[in-house]
Amino acid sequence: MRDNRINNRKEELHRINEKIRTPKVRLVGDNVEQGIYSISEALRMADNLELDLVEISPTADPPVCKIMDYQKFLYQQKKKQKEAKANSVKVVVKEIRFGPQTDDHDFNFKLKHAKNFLEEGSKVKAYVFFKGRSILFKEQGEVLLLRFATELEDYAKVDQLPALEGKKMIMMLSPKKAAPKAAAKPKEQQPKEKSKPAAEPKHDSGEE
Questions:
Q1: Which residue, among 182, 124, 181, 129, has the nearest Cα to 158 in the 3D structure?
Q2: pTM above 0.85, yes or no
Q3: Residues 62 and 114 reside in one and the same domain
Q4: Which of 97, 123, 171, 204 could bridge to 145 as Cys pair (CB 3.0-4.6 Å)?
């Protein structure tokens, strides 16, 4: 028997069962012979199947209905919304700023930060900022960013190659699925096989 308590749900999205007031409905679905039925006949069919009569297209003439488990339908809809929300998690983008004359010490410092960001699952926006006449060194900035990408090739993939945007040359990186930390650990040294003691040489007793 269908659960008529569903009729009282405040969050009801459709008219169902006895709340459908039209004299005739068009039934669709896999569990019935599709066609136009009186509302009383459609309700009887739903009751025989221990399911609900659900109005899915109220503006049609006659309205289109489907026989289904409405509680299960609502659960599946809620589950899909939850999954869609989980898949639309906001992507975090961390910025790494360089100057065209960045030295090795500063470069390695920023490289370490970038590795940490990528391992956390964040994207990295690396850019070289050109101040004043330093724009003349844009080729040098491009070389620096490409070197940065090469150093991070085990951690990241390049989404956008270095491109000049105003006073910035920007490169975008995103984390690889397999982070280095998850990589296979080096094989532990296997215990050495115990060396068998050398057989003692046999000696003649020497007795005559």
A1: 124
A2: no
A3: no
A4: 171
